[in-house]
Amino acid sequence: MHLQIHPEVADALESGRPVVALESTIISHGLPRPDNLRVAREIEDSVRSGGAVPATIAVVDGIPRIGLDDDALRTVAEDDSVVKVSVRDLGTLVAKRGNGATTVAATSHLAHLAGILVFATGGLGGVHRGARDTWDESADLTTLSTTPVTVVCAGVKSILDVAATLERLETLNVPVLGYRTDRFPGFYLADSGFAVDWRVDDPAEVAAVMHARSALECDAGVIVCNPVAPEDELDRTLHDSVLVAGLAAADQAGVRGKDVTPFLLEFFHTATKGRSLEVNVALVRSNAVLAAAIAVAAAA
Ligand code: PSU
Ligand code: MN
Q1: Within this chain, do residues 169 and 60 fall inside the same structural domain, yes or no?
Q2: Where in the sequence is the active site (predicted)?
Q3: Count of structural domains within the chain
Q4: Are 100 and 137 within one domain?
Q5: Which of 116, 136, 151 is the last residue of a domain?
Q6: Which domain holds residue 22?
Q7: In sequence order, which ranges of the chain are alpha helices (DSSP H)?
Q8: I need a labelling partner for 140 at 20 to 30 A (CA). Which of 35, 106, 146, 159 fits?
Q9: Is omega for the bond preceding 18 within 30 degrees of 0, making it cis?
Q10: What residues does the ion ligand 2 have nearby, CB within 5 Å?
Q11: Among candidates 150, 147, 159, 126, which has minimal Cα distance to 248?
């Protein structure tokens, strides 16, 4: 096997106990140092508090790791050699024995290889604004269309073209379920302004959807949207003004491709004086707790 599975994770998988995969790009490229290491540990604790085993996924010294020990987690959070890796980068990075933090796409791919059914993240990648000209659409979408994992997220970031992202998910056969909501969440905001077709109200219902899909060989992933708690969301006026400024700044700086998402997240964290960071952390932790409950229900 070309994967190194942490003993605690391997043990849980062998005995059918619940495991939740966690991505690492959010640690290396989504959250600023030095908070990122502490937050990465807190997210793992949130999974544990929900009764599941956390498996943070990354590539360390060319080895895809499913579940990280403290040294590996520290490398992902602090080492400048860590690059953002999507599915297409995995083989090259392994051959070159490099260090990489996995996106939603690469994390989903590796989680599925390891036999993990549920994955928690902050916000999914999607279709970028201006994609009509740039063709910038995250491989998160195409990967989920062929990878049967259940991804718990707070929707997609408002930095993206939300309407186009939802259309693409429909084309790609990826179902979008609102968790206790009829609205598609907007990451920093509980409501992106768009509706979802399906609502689920408890973890057992999500597990039932997973089970039915598996029986029917519907092999795409499932997106479970968990909106940030209303009291935790970013002030809307602040959000809208920072978004306009951030998009202009990215354009002016000539930021392109895989650098766009990290640039805009960093812009938000600075421009809101850390408030967007608090929101980001709150929603990831909430997603980790829900993902654990879904993994528990799916294992039952
Ligand atoms: N959402 C966050 N923080 C992040 C990301 C998403 O809250 O850092 C990362 C995820 O790893 C996601 C990636 O897969 O951004 C999407 O990047 P791109 O648009 O380049 O595909
Ligand atoms: Mn992109």
Answers
A1: no
A2: 23, 157
A3: 2
A4: no
A5: 116
A6: 1-116
A7: 7-14, 25, 35-49, 70-78, 90-95, 104-114, 131-134, 139-144, 162-171, 203-215, 236-252, 260-271, 275-299
A8: 35
A9: no
A10: 136
A11: 159
- The amino acid at 267: F
> What separation in Å is there between the alpha carbon of 138 and the centre of ligand 2?
5
ipTM of the complex: 0.94
Q: Which of 47, 50, 84, 271 is nearest to 159 (CA)?
A: 271
Whether 23 is catalytic is yes
Residue with tokens 């990831």: 284
Find the radius of gyration of the CA atoms of the chain.
18
157 has catalytic annotation: yes
- Residue 207: exposure state from Cβ atoms within 10 A (0-12, 13-18, ≥19): buried
Residues 94 and 4 grouped into a single domain: yes
CATH number at residue 93: 3.40.1790.10
Closest atom of ligand 1 relative to the 84 alpha carbon: 11
- Rounded Cα distance, 258 and 276, in Å: 21
pLDDT digits (tens, 9 = 90+) for 96-138: 999 999 999 999 999 999 999 999 999 999 999 999 999 999 9
Tell me the per-residue pLDDT of 45-73, one tens digit each, with 9 for 90 and over. Answer: 999 999 999 999 999 999 999 999 999 99
